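SEVERITY: medium
COMPONENT: batch folding queue
REPORTER: lab tech (J.R.)

DESCRIPTION
The queue accepted two submissions in a row. Attaching both inputs and their returned C-alpha cells so the on-call engineer can compare them side by side.

ATTACHMENT 1
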Amino acid sequence: MKLRYNLKCPGQLFLLLFFILEALPVAGQAPQALYIGTATTEITPPLPAAADGQMRIRVANTVETPLTANVLVLESRATGSSGSRTVFVSCDLVTIPTELRDLVRQSVARRVPDLDPKKIILNATHTHTAGVVRDGWYTIPEGVTQVKDYQAFIADRVADAILKAWNNRVRGSVSWGLGHAKVAYNRRAAYADGSARMYGATNVPEFRKIEGYEDQSVNSLFFWDDSGKLIAVCINVASPAQVVESRSAINADYWHPVREFMKAEFGEQLVVLGWIGAAGDQTPRPMYSNQAEYRMVALRHGDDQEDASGKAEFRTDEYLDEIGRRIFNSVVDIYGVVKDDRHQELVVDHKVAELELPMRLVLEEEYEYSKKMRDEDLNDPERRIPFSRRIAWYQEVLDRYEAQKNNAQPIYPVEIHVLRLGDVAISTNPFELFTEFGIQMKARSNALQTFVIQLVGAGTYVPTKEAVAGGHYSAVVQSNRVGPEGGQILVDRTVEMINGLF
C-alpha cells in the first residue's frame, strides 16, 4: 500500500515530516559497530587474610575458592573514529572503597592513556568471605595481610587485566534477555508491634509479614566475538553473595559455582561478570519454609535432611551449588531464546554524574545510644580488638553528630553511571540499595530492559521509609549514611538520565 500526501496541505506535510524525523536516529545516537575485550584475573589475598563483612574480625587461613575480577571492555566505533568506551570490572569483594577505585583508575591511566578513567566501573559481588578492603574498619593483627597492601595488590592485578582486555578487543555482537530464578529472599521480618528485624524469626505468633519487595529477575547480556564464539556474559541478580558469609575462609560464594557451571557449558574462554541488583534488604537464604527448602537441597545431593541440631542449615557448599544451579539454569534458558538475536551495530552511550544526596541526620538519642555501645566494647579488653569493626561502626555516628553542629544539612557525594546499549539501559549506584528503589528504576525506565548494579562504590544501606519505621540493622542510622529521602532522589535522577538516552 502506498501512502499519498498532498504537500499543499499543511496537516499532511507535518505528518510526512513527523514520519521522516521518527525514522532518523537521534543526533549523536547513530548505531555504531561494537568492539569487545575480555579478561579475568585472580585477586585472592595472600594468607593469612582477614575476611570482610561481619562485625567481628575473622582471620582466614584457607582458600575454599579463588576470588576473581572479571573484565569487559566495550567500545563503539563509527567509520574512522571511536565513540563510547566503557570498562566493567566485577570483583569478588564485599564493597569497592573510593580509594581502591581511585587506585585502579590511576593504574589504568598509566597503562592505557586513551581510556577515560571515569568510564571504569568496578562493582562488588558482596561476598562476606573476601579479604578486607576497607581501611580503618578492622584492627588486623600483625602477620595478616594488611588493607593497604591488599588494595595495591588488587589495583595492580585489575589494571593489568584491563590492559589485556583493551588490547584484545575484537569486533563482536551482543544480545540481551530476561529470565527468572528464586535467588533473593527479603530478609526483614515485620511484627505485630510495628517493629522489624533483619533475619528475624518468622515462626512466632507475632510475625506478620516479610517487610518488602523481592526481585527474582535474572537480567543477562551475552557477548560474542567476530567468529561467533561466546566470550562474556553479564548476569544481574538482586541478591548479595552471602550464602556462607560467616565462615573464616576465602570464598567467592555462589558466583564460583555459577562460573564453573557456565564454563563447563560454554568453554573456559567465557568471562562471567556478576552484577548485584538493588538488594540491600535481600539474602540468598530462605526466611520461611526452611525445612521444605532444605529437604529438596538434601535430596538433590543425597545428604541428611538436617544437621545434628535438627535445624535446616543453608550455609553449606550444597546450598551454594543450589543457588548457582538456579542462576545457571535461568541463564541457559535465556541464551536459548536470544542467541540468534545478536546486534553488531547499535546505539551506545555512557553518562557519568556526580550527585549530592542529603545525609541521614543523627538524632541526639541515636548519638547517646551509639556512645554507650561504643564505650562498652572499647572499655572491655576482651572485646576491643575482636569487635573493632563494631566500635568503628558506632564511632562514625558520633563523628557525624559532631559534624552536624557546624553543618545542619550535610550531603553525601556519589558517582553514578547510566549506559545505553541498544535497547538496554544499565545504571549503577554505590549503595546496598533496598530492592524497592531498584524496582522503581526498572518500572519507570523507557528502556526495553533495565539493569541495576549496586555496590559500584563504598556501600552502606539505603532503606525505605517503612524499614526505618521498623528499625533494626540495615535501617538504623549506624547502617545508613543516606536515608529514604536520598534514595528517592537517587531513583529520580537515575530514571531521568536513563530516559534522556531513549
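ATTACHMENT 2
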Amino acid sequence: MIEAIHKIMVPDTAGDPMTGLKWTRKTTAKIRRQLRRRGIHVSDRTVARLLRGLDYSLRVNRKLIATASSPERNRQFEYINRQRRLFREQCLPAISIDTKKKEMLGQFKNPGRVWADGPVRVNDHDFRRDSVGMAIPYGVFDTQANRGHIFVGTSHDTAKFAVNALARWWKGDGQRAYPDARRLLVLADGGGSNGPRIRAWKHALQTRFADPFGVAVTVCHYPPGASKWNPIEHRLFSEVSKNWAGRPLDSYETMLNYIRTTTTASGLRVKATLLEGEYMTGTKLSDAEMNAVNLRPHRVLPVWNYTISPN
C-alpha cells in the first residue's frame, strides 16, 4: 500500500531543497479515490496516517513569498504530468535538472547542526577573499531510477555549462541505463541558465547534445513561481543539504564527498563530478545560428514546451 500511495504522490509533490519539507496539492479524499481504482479500499484517516509515514504533514500557508504566478499554471502542471506518464510508459528516460544554490568554499558557517564533542570553528565573517573558490552545483536527477548526478562547476552558471553537464550525464549514466533511447524528457525551471527564453540554452542543446548523440530532447519548463515542484528540488537537493548540514564546505573535495555519500531509505544514490573550465557569460548568438536549431514548439504552451531534434 505504501508503494501505491508513493506512486500517486510523486507527480504532485513539491518540496524545499534546503529543509526537505514536502507538500502536495492532493487531498486525502482524492488520494483515497485513486487508491480505490487500484483495488485498495481505505479511509481518509488511513490515508492521512500513511502520508505522515512518508514525511508529509499538514501545514498552514504563511505569507512570506512575493512572486509572480501564471494563469496557465495548472494547465502546464497537467501537461508535464502527461509527458512524464507518456515517457514512463514507453520506458524512455525522464530527468529533472537545475542549479543548486552556489556555495562559497572555505571555513565558513554552514546552517544546520551536527553531533560533535565540541563546536565547529568557522570564520566570523564570510568574506570572498577568504574562500578557496566558488562552487556551482548543477544537478541531473533521473526521476524513474531515483539516481542523481551533480556536476560542480568552478566558473559561471551558463547555458553551455548546463548542457555540458547534461552531455556528461548522458555519456556516463544515461546511455548505460537507456541504451536504445532516442528521446529524452527534460524537466526544468523557468529561469536561470536553462530558462525557456535563453537562446544559448536551445542552441547548446542542439549542437552539444541532440546532434552529437542523435537524441531528440523534449523540454518542459515549470511555470513562474513553481520551481519547488521540480522533482530535483525535493528528491535530490534537499537530501544533499541535509547530508552536509552543519559542516563547513572547506574545499571542492569536501563538497564532492558529501554529495557522493548522500543516500535515502528509498534508494537514492548520487554521483558527483568536478566540471572545471571557464564558462564565459554574455554569449550572443546570431539569428542564423538560431535558425539552425531544429526546434518544434508544442501546441500546448509552446514557450514552455518544445522538442529539439537532431539535424
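NOTES FROM REPORTER
The chain has two domains: 1-66, 69-308.
No errors were logged for either attachment.
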